[in-house]
């Protein structure tokens, strides 16, 4: 098989790496890719949103299966174009990508299907949003309605922070058009989980959840990011928890979409808060998570090609994705200034030394080759992943490797995988 992966981050590097290990795969292309994907695949200089060029490439090179990573490619309709051309592709249609591309639309659907979520209100008028928050208690969460690369949810602990968030999103347009409309919702406490669901439109399989750390600083402080690190499997979660999440959060919406005649094919990826009252949806994502995919690439027992093909070909019921025993952890190394503005082009040192350490796999996020060396080219630059029989062993290995890497302004959290008691400010809990 020849595979095409669309995207340029750590998620795409992880998929390229794993597909390159499959005996069924003869060639992997990544468009546009990064310095890491170049080591295991062939990078193609086509932007992830240049849909017509991507489809032309897939047709000319007789690609057997295309995997879409970025949400903006899905929202732009890449799956629709590929399917119209008879090209096999893993991912949902443009219409279904709206579940992630519009928080307000997703909230409307959650209410319609009576799927538990936070109480909320949507605004596209700045003055009305300001008047509303002035009447609320805190904390509250202000969310950009559109796609924001994981940076659109702002936990506001005071009226001052809420007003600042509204000013940034709706007036200053710090996230562009994504902030034209905002969702203001109540703050949920509990255990925050990311759910990874393979779906072929007829059946689905819920993987064991991951648990991530989104705030920039140790102790869950600082602004939210795409993710500063993650562990798999999420600690302290039971099979009963996973079944409840499947029954309450996943099955109702996938069944509804199937009955409606718009079955979801691809990777369904809800964010869930496991509260004292049960699971509640934080958001719906419709593509492989990042850095979730990096960890599943390390621990999934099956050949990933088999799983993705089964989804596209409607055969998932005959295949059961399983995890290997053990634990995996990912530690993000980010640029100074992230999740805000940051500089690019800094040389990265220590990559080869870090990669030689046992049970380590480093996935590139924002990197590129410049004059023969790897340099920074994004906010989340690298994802250092490690596996171990225990979470403690995996954590120790990941940080040993991470500390051998250096680039100017490099930042990482030092408590990924560490036990944290429930925090009334962030709601995150690792047990």
* Mean pLDDT over all positions: 94
Q: What's the overall geometry?
A: globular
Give the name of the CATH architecture of the largest domain: 2-Layer Sandwich
Distance between the termini: 42 Å
**From the helix content, strand content and strand pairing, which structural class follows?**
alpha+beta
Largest sheet, described in full?
A: 5 strands, parallel
Proportion of beta-strand residues: 25-35%
The side-by-side strand order for the widest beta sheet comes to: 3-2-1-4-5
| Helical content class | 25-40%
Total number of strands: 23
Q: What's the number of structural domains?
A: 3
Tally of individual helices: 13
Q: Could you give me the name of the CATH homologous superfamily of the largest domain?
A: ATP-grasp fold, B domain
CATH class of the largest domain: Alpha Beta
Fold-level CATH name of the largest domain: D-amino Acid Aminotransferase, Chain A, domain 1
**Poorly predicted tracts of residues:** 421-431
Rg over CA atoms, rounded to whole Å, is 20 Å
Describe this protein with a few key phrases.
431 residues; alpha+beta; Rossmann fold; Dna Ligase, domain 1; D-amino Acid Aminotransferase, Chain A, domain 1; five-stranded antiparallel beta sheet; 26% strand; globular; disordered C terminus
Short summary of the structure?
The protein is 30% helix and 26% strand. The protein has 13 helices and 23 strands.
Description:
The chain is an alpha+beta fold. The protein has 3 domains: 2-91, Rossmann fold; 125-180, ATP-grasp fold, A domain (Dna Ligase, domain 1, 2-Layer Sandwich), CATH 3.30.1490.20; 191-402, ATP-grasp fold, B domain (D-amino Acid Aminotransferase, Chain A, domain 1), CATH 3.30.470. Helix content is 30%, strand content 26%. It has 13 helices and 23 strands. The protein has helices at 10-20, 51-60, 71-75, 78-84, 94-101, 103-113, 126-133, 159-171, 239-259, 292-299, 304-312, 351-355, 391-402; strands spanning 2-7, 27-32, 42-43, 65-68, 89-90, 120-123, 140-144, 153-156, 182-186, 191-194, 197-200, 204-206, 211-212, 215-217, 221-224, 229-232, 265-275, 278-285, 327-334, 360-364, 367-370, 373-376, 380-388. A 5-stranded parallel β-sheet has the order 3-2-1-4-5, with helices on both faces. Strands 10, 11, 12, 17 and 18 form a 5-stranded antiparallel β-sheet that branches. It has a 5-stranded antiparallel β-sheet with strand order 13-16-19-23-20. A hairpin with an 8-residue loop joins strand 7 and strand 8. Helix 1 runs parallel beside helix 10 and helix 7 runs antiparallel to helix 8. The protein starts with a strand and ends in a 29-residue tail after the last helix. The model is unreliable at 421-431 (pLDDT under 50).
């Amino acid at each position: 098989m020849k595979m095409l992966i669309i995207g340029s981050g750590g998620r795409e590097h992880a998929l390229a790496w794993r597909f390159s290990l499959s005996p069924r795969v003869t060639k992997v292309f990544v468009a546009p890719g990064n310095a890491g994907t170049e080591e295991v695949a062939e990078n193609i200089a086509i932007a992830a949103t240049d849909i017509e060029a991507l489809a032309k490439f897939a047709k000319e090179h007789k690609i057997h299966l295309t995997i879409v990573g970025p949400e903006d490619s899905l929202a732009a309709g890449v799956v629709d174009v590929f399917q119209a051309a008879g090209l096999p592709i893993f991912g949902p249609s443009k219409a279904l990508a709206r579940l992630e591309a519009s928080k307000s639309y997703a909230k409307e659907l959650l209410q319609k299907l009576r799927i538990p979520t936070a109480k909320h209100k949507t605004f596209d008028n700045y003055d009305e949003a300001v008047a509303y928050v002035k009447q609320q208690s805190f904390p509250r969460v202000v969310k950009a309605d559109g796609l924001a690369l994981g940076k659109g949810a702002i936990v506001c602990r005071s009226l001052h922070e809420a007003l600042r968030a509204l000013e940034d999103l709706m007036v200053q347009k710090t996230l562009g058009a994504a902030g034209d409309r905002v969702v203001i919702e109540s703050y949920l406490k509990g255990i925050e989980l990311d759910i990874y669901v393979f779906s072929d439109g007829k059946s689905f399989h819920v993987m064991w959840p991951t648990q991530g750390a989104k705030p920039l600083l140790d102790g869950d402080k600082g602004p939210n990011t795409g993710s500063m690190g993650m562990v798999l499997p999420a600690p302290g979660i039971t099979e009963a928890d996973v079944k409840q999440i499947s029954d309450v959060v996943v099955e109702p919406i996938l069944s509804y979409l199937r009955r409606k005649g718009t079955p979801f094919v691809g990777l369904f990826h809800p964010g869930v808060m496991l509260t004292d009252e049960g699971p509640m949806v934080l958001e719906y994502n419709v593509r492989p998570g990042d850095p979730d995919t990096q960890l599943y690439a390390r621990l999934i027992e099956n050949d990933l090609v088999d799983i993705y093909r089964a989804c596209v070909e409607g055969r998932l019921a005959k295949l059961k994705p399983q995890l290997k025993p053990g634990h995996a952890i990912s530690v993000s190394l980010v640029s100074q200034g992230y999740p805000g503005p940051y500089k690019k082009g800094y040389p990265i040192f220590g990559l080869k030394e870090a990669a030689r350490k046992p049970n380590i796999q480093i996935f590139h996020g924002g990197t590129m080759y410049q004059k023969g060396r790897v340099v920074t080219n994004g906010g989340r630059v690298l994802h250092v992943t490690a596996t171990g029989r225990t979470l403690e062993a995996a954590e120790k290995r990941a940080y040993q490797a991470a500390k051998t890497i250096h680039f100017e302004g490099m930042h990482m959290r030092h408590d990924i995988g560490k036990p944290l008691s429930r925090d009334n400010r962030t709601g995150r809990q690792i047990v």
